[in-house]
Amino acid sequence: MLASPRGATSTALARLADDGEAEYEFHLRWDPDSSLLTDAPRSVVHFGSIAAFLSPGSAVIDDVLASATRASGTHPRPLISFDPNIRPSIIGSREEALPRFEELARRVDVLKLSDVDANWLYPDLDESAQVDRLLSLGANLVAMTRGGEGAIVATASALASVTSRKVEVKDTIGAGDTFMVSLIHDLNAQENAVSDLSTAELTALGDRASALAAITVSCEGADLPWAADLRN
């Protein structure tokens, strides 16, 4: 999506604890200019976090999704991915946010979230039941990151549990974004339908994403790694 400068700039202040975990303070205005949207073909549409929940800009997200799902044979439907990246201080109560989350989750191919997100959305379900619930909403693939405990990558017919790389954690900012970027990159290159991926293929997706996220948390600052960093 394109952007144009209008009004005050939104800011986010991150404070790091001794273990690298971050707390955030936001001052936000989310009112993108929908006139800048185009119908140009896209291979991927990704959205998430505050943009998906905060009005009035969340309505523009709905327009983007509607446009993506109207893709024709001339413009094939893009891969659509969603990372809710829950920020309760901004999006309101669970009772307010859950219907919006589930509405959006029903419209995507790939849903990625953290175990913290999942526990906030579905506090009465255990991890396995959370994954089942998320898949039942309609996404073809669900990925749940679990910090140092690794990640789960699942479809309706296959599930892979991958471990995290052991590194010294300096800064967790950007870890989830790195995992998401890796998933999008690799899924966009897949020839098979996302829903048809085998356990071995899901494991490879999760291992690569986890390895890149480990590089991110081992460095200070939200500076996402390059694919070549895996070879170093």
TrEMBL record:
Cited SUPFAM superfamilies: Ribokinase-like (SSF53613)
Domain Carbohydrate kinase PfkB: 42-225
InterPro entries in alphabetical order: PfkB_Carbo_kinase, PfkB_dom, Ribokinase-like
Superkingdom of source: Bacteria
Gene3D superfamilies associated with the record: 3.40.1190.20
Pfam families to which the protein is assigned, alphabetical: PfkB
Keyword vocabulary terms for this entry: ATP-binding, Kinase, Nucleotide-binding, Transferase
A GO molecular-function descriptor: kinase activity
PANTHER family cross-referenced by the UniProt entry: HEXOKINASE FAMILY MEMBER, PSEUDOURIDINE KINASE-RELATED
Assigned protein family: Belongs to the carbohydrate kinase PfkB family.
Record's protein name: Carbohydrate kinase
Source species: Brevibacterium permense
